[in-house]
Amino acid sequence: MPRLPNALILKGYKISPLLPLILRGARTLDSAINELRWLKEHVSATAKPSLSPQSKRKCLLQLCIRRSRAEPLQYILGSQPFGDLDIKCRPGILIPRPETEAYTTHLANLLLSGNYDTLLRTTGKLAKKKHRLPKVPSPRILDVCSGSGCISLLLHSLLATRFPDTAIFGLDISHTAIALSNQNLELNVKAGKLLPSASQGRDGGYPQVQFGRCNVLSKYPIGFGHLDIIISNPPYISKAKFASETTRSVRNYEPKLALVPFQNQPFTRGGLEWEPELKFYDRLLKLHQTHSSKILLMEIGDEEQARRVVEMAALANQHTGSNKIELWRDYPDASPEKGEPTMMNIQGSFKELPYPNVEGKTKIEREQIHRTWNGMKPENPGIKFDEFDVPIRGAGKIRSVVLFRENNFRKTEGSKLMKEMLAMRLEDVTLCGAAKKKWQKWDVGMPGRENRKFSTKLKVEKRKRRKKKLRPASF
Amino acid sequence: MFGAPYICRRCINASLRPARRRLLRSASTTSHGSFSPALLSRARNLASEHDRLSKETAESFDAKISRRIGELKSVSEALKEWETAQDSLKELNSLLKDPTTDSELRELAAEDISSTVTQLETLSQRLATSLTPKHPFQDLPCLVEIRPGVGGGEAALFAADLLKMYQAYCSRKGMRSSLLKYETADGDSDGNLPLAEAILEIETPGSYGELRSEAGVHRVQRVPATESKGRTHTSAVGVLVLPSLPKSGSEGQEMGEADFNDPESDYYVNPGDVRTDVMRARGAGGQHVNTTDSAIRLTHIPTNTVVSMQDSRSQHQNRERAWQLLRSKLAQAKREAREEEVVKLRRGVIGIAKMGRGDKVRTYNWGQQRVTDHRSGMSVHNLDDVMEGGHDLDKIIDSVKSWLGDREIEAMLADDEAAAGNSKS
């Protein structure tokens, strides 16, 4: 981090003696002046009117000192605007980013344009039962790694007027995040920025926006019925980049859990080795395939990662029916600037890992090995695909990978693949936490309760294991 | 003999000299007791049109025609009243002149004449105002943009004072106002912050009509806080008053022309012509950084109009406000261009003082505690009250408004005369 020039500090001091403090956190004079004004507004809005101006000034000074330690302004003020909404922020939960806002809004605009209505309406179940298809689709959306709940809430605020029967589920690993997202839901409904159907449901139905705790890496989430859209801003920063590329305020104050996947080891999938931080994309692609959702939107870190995720998606494409892959930049609705390519070329050649040695293993173990090696392609042995181009939309840095399903694979691939999927699901899947069949009954309101149960369970298991270990020794 | 043994010569001179006449014209004095034939004929034309239209609507109803009738109604009513008053005046005059009338009747007529004359005065005033063309943006809320001009830091300080004055004025008048944009300049921080640019949004409908006379260069003469030797400086601050256009098309429906989805209207801005610039995060962006930059800059490429907004923490809100401002600016520019053409045409007929926003319109003099408006010629000697947005500011604004009305009538007359001249030749 370059040192602040003295001239800049002096210039700031001339405007206000508090600015040098804020400059340490904000780094540029323009943003420091803005931040000082917002801090002042915050103090005058939140301080008790009975406070003397002197103590108000002291309050402001305290906040400025906090900012000088590079604490994010959003944590100091306790909120961040996200689209129309005001999202509450608290240490321990990732602050919503403007890029996230941009692609969420763009996705909502795509859906509102009506071009995707037919895609959203073709649900396998409904088509089978020959129901009359509803005129207006009712998209069911899953937001994986919802954090503060910003994506779910913004989507509801944008979509609910056109699609009154929309349903949005948010999943996160953290109890505090779930509690905060529920608070955000309540606050925004109260402020009139969300329709009341978001928290109360329509005509006595389920609430349209719900949050639940789930560790999607270890437990496979089920129980949503079909899904139309999966959207996710998963942790995607690698350990090395966390140390080198994140700014001080992110590194020191934002939760590492939301930034860096806790997976340490590279994993194999489809006979290839993948970096550990891609684990989430693997899981998201699988969710996309098992729930036969129509659109999958995943935020990614940089161009290199985008390439890897597109390769992963292309591999998955080989047997899940065709998905149209797109890359979106930071501002997908803007026109590309000079020097920004609009296509990314993906080479289809990979170096396959050698098949693991399975001699002397039992049948079950062999299957296990095969599955970890071959996970995403149960049938096809070939993993090479033709070189192809992926369109890149918008301006800025490459920010997300988007998959649009082009045909319903349930129809094309038939029931065989479906059965296989189901088998995988049953084996792989257990519901997280205090698992109940109904999403509705998830224990969301009381953070910590599940944890306690879980820990006692763990203790019992540990005790059992210890006994087992002890027995042979004593015999 | 004298109460005081000595009186200084200056005092004696002052008391002996007749009161010095100010060379300024005092608040609008032009009266409309008698009308120019052109204006009168115009009023008659409008009245006859009103009669014709109302006959038409008696048979079939049309929203457009009935709206036009509503506009003309005030003119025709005022004209009727004025004409009856004029007739009675004529009758009374003839009575007075007639030698056959007896003395009693003559006395009564003389009494009546004075009252009728005063009545005629007010009636003609009313007729004049009804004839004054209604400004098309008059019923809109407005944006007041304040920028320091010549004078450096002192101008910036005075700009902040002016902003306060307008805020106080609005709150006293019960008009809802909010700061859309507030940018401080570099400078010392004690007291009020010097201003680089401020935009005050006044949401009350009709505030554009109230405040449009405020547009122009405001000059200040005082010893600035930044001055160490006690010299008086003169600096200038530009005030721009823009009509604030309704946010959505549905709100603007009742105004007829204010539909900005219609490419023909003044309010239309083609989104393809506007380039949006957003503060881009440095480095990798996304989860790697957390910025508070929410600045938005819009550039209208054909006219090279730039609007930037960074006041709110929400980028979304900044974008909306920037669009609103851009729309207002472009609409104003289009209208000004059209007016400029009309003025050019007029100049061929009659020399009319230029009243563009380049000229100074008002002076605030701290030394004499005086505020003078150069257009109406009104002077007020209660500077503090004006700066607090008090009743004296009202007086000034009203005088300017009536001056503007006179000007518009004059211009209209000139137009009519020109039209008449054209038709003759």
TrEMBL record, chain A:
Q: What biological-process terms (Gene Ontology) are attached?
A: methylation
Instruction: List every stretch annotated Disordered.
Output: 446-475
SUPFAM superfamilies noted in UniProt = S-adenosyl-L-methionine-dependent methyltransferases
Pfam families, per database record = MTS
Query: Ranges for the Methyltransferase small domain?
Result: 133-244
An example molecular function term from Gene Ontology annotations: nucleic acid binding
Question: Do you know which InterPro entries this protein is assigned to?
Answer: DNA_methylase_N6_adenine_CS, N5-glutamine_MTase, SAM-dependent_MTases_sf, Small_mtfrase_dom
GO CC list: mitochondrion
Query: Could you tell me where the Basic residues compositional bias lies?
Result: 454-475
What is the protein's given name? Answer: Methyltransferase small domain-containing protein
Give the species: Phialocephala subalpina
TrEMBL record, chain B:
InterPro entries, from UniProt? Answer: PCRF (IPR005139), Pep_chain_release_fac_I (IPR000352), Pep_chain_release_fac_I_sf (IPR045853), Prokaryotic/Mito_RF (IPR050057)
UniProt keywords, alphabetically: Methylation, Protein biosynthesis
- Ranges for region Disordered: 243-266
Q: Does the keyword section mention S-adenosyl-L-methionine?
A: no
Q: Which GO terms describe its cellular component?
A: mitochondrial inner membrane
Q: Which residues form the signal peptide?
A: none
The family database entries (Gene3D superfamilies) matched by this protein are listed as: 3.30.160.20, 3.30.70.1660, 6.10.140.1950
State any single GO MF term.
translation release factor activity
List GO BP terms, alphabetically. mitochondrial translational termination
Which is one Pfam family of this protein?
Answer: PCRF
Bias (Acidic residues) occurs at 254-265
On the tree of life, the source organism's domain of life is: Eukaryota
Domain Prokaryotic-type class I peptide chain release factors: residue ranges: 280-296
Family, according to the entry, reads as follows:
Belongs to the prokaryotic/mitochondrial release factor family.
Q: Could you tell me what this protein is called?
A: Related to translation releasing factor RF-1, mitochondrial
- Organism this protein belongs to: Phialocephala subalpina
